[in-house]
Design a protein that fits this description.
By secondary structure, the chain is of the alpha/beta class. It is built from 15 helices and 17 strands.
């Protein structure tokens, strides 16, 4: 398989690692900072420096940061496994997490021979594969240095790591391993023709995760860093049900933003591939709200029905509510902005909630509500959610506005959904606060 043109500049980093490997013996202790750097975040920094952002976005090439790698290493330390596979290994960060829990032998070549039998990784980019092999060799050299106080002078270390190779994970067949580690591309890709959980374009990470299960032996584990939309988004209900059908989910943990350069919230998913048929497990994708009434029991919650850049301007002229015209909180009258519209309208009073959201930063409310009052029906843009009380009118609306502004609601929403758009289900499932009534 040929190199992929967009990643060729990364060979500069590979050559730098070769230089470090060649000089380890002569430098001794002075080489430690370089080795530590290369085993931590430097390879990701070099990816950002050498490979254009447009190409990295196109192929989803974002290497696992050290804090998330440490999370994976914690899981692997508690997971019974001897063999590991990363189907989208990049520069090998998650394979390095595996080496942290793998035993070492008497010599570096013996260690790498053992690791080579049990470490497998694939990536489309030969430049990344070459870097991954060298970093794993550095990991072995460092482990032995910590025992002996000197760097081994062995040569041909990379010949033991042939299981880490340029390959397309979507077409690979291999003997099942004890554990798969995965940080897949966060791009979008077409679902297969027979896919039962999605149609059209969907999350590539969701596809990779389910495909990776075929590479795990029964009773083995998969540990994955995935976009939080798979954990909390309503579009992935069927995907989550598919995961539950094939595995026993043992751990779900929100991890926040992937890194300082990649504004995507992620979560950690650990699952055991089932040895028997489906079970009736209750997976804690998010915290279960307390028993009692919910917002959905008292309000009809809908997405605004106007898609302004797509819907035709036809029908009667209507007051048109858009997010940028709303105050940050409080109360609004019938909007002065108007639009021709023939679809569904909303009769005040109701609570308008901005859909565009993100996990709480500072004191901002994720779902600040604005009470809309007046005597005319309103067309509402689809960047807003509308909560219309089933009974109670303005009084119930004020209670909802008060509840949405409460810090406890922020905490519930942060746990429930880290996607950039609030969903109808996330709002409807909020427990109703009797204090707000």
């Amino acid at each position: 398989m040929d190199s992929v043109p967009g990643s060729v500049p990364y060979l500069e980093h590979t050559a730098h690692i070769d230089g470090v490997l060649d000089s380890l013996q002569s430098q001794g202790e002075a080489a430690r900072p370089q080795v530590d750097r290369l085993l931590d975040g430097h390879s990701a920094a070099e990816l950002r420096r050498l490979v254009p952002l447009s190409y990295r976005r196109q192929v989803g090439a974002f290497f696992t940061p050290s804090n998330l790698r440490a999370k994976v290493a914690e899981v692997l330390a508690a997971t019974p496994a001897e063999s590991y596979l990363d189907p989208t290994c990049g520069a090998g960060d998650l394979l390095l997490a595996a080496t942290e829990v793998m035993p070492i032998s008497a010599t570096v070549p013996e260690t790498l021979a053992n690791w080579g039998e049990n470490l497998h990784g694939w990536d489309l980019h030969e430049e990344f594969i070459q870097t991954a092999r060298r970093r794993i060799a550095l990991s072995a050299l460092k482990r032995h240095y910590e025992m002996s106080g000197q760097f081994d002078q062995s040569t041909n270390l990379l010949e033991h790591l042939k299981g880490i190779q340029q390959a397309d994970a979507r077409t690979q067949e291999a003997k099942p391993v004890d554990a798969v580690v995965l940080n897949p591309p966060f791009t979008r890709a077409p679902a297969s023709r027979g896919c039962k959980w999605a149609q059209g374009k969907t999350s590539n990470a969701a596809i990779f995760f389910l495909d990776a299960l075929q590479h795990v032996r029964r009773g083995g584990y998969i540990t994955a860093i995935l976009p939080d939309s798979l954990r909390s988004g309503s579009n992935f209900n069927k995907w989550r049900a598919t995961v539950e059908c094939h595995t026993d989910v043992t751990h779900v943990e929100r991890l926040g933003v992937f890194d300082d350069h990649t504004d995507i919230d992620v979560f950690l998913l650990v699952a055991k591939v089932r040895t028997t048929g489906p079970s009736r497990q209750s997976v804690p994708w998010w915290s279960k709200p307390p028993e009692g009434r919910t917002v959905g029991d008292l309000f009809e919650v809908r997405v605004g029905t106007v898609v302004d850049n797509r819907d035709p301007h036809e029908g009667e002229s209507r007051p048109f509510l858009v997010a940028r015209d709303l105050p940050a909180s409080g109360r609004a009258e019938i909007p002065s902005r108007r639009r021709l519209f023939s679809g569904r309208l909303f009769e005040p009073p109701f609570v308008a909630i901005r859909r565009t959201s993100r996990p709480t930063e500072g004191s901002a409310s994720r779902a600040a509500g604005v009470l809309v009052t007046g005597d005319q029906e309103v067309a509402v843009d689809n960047h807003l959610l509308v909560a219309k009380p089933l009974k109670g009118g303005v009084k119930e609306c004020n209670a909802l506005v008060k509840m949405l502004a409460d810090s406890s609601t922020n905490e519930l929403l942060d746990d429930r959904i880290s996607c950039r758009h609030l969903t109808v289900s996330a709002i409807k499932q909020l427990p109703w606060s009797e204090r707000a009534s």
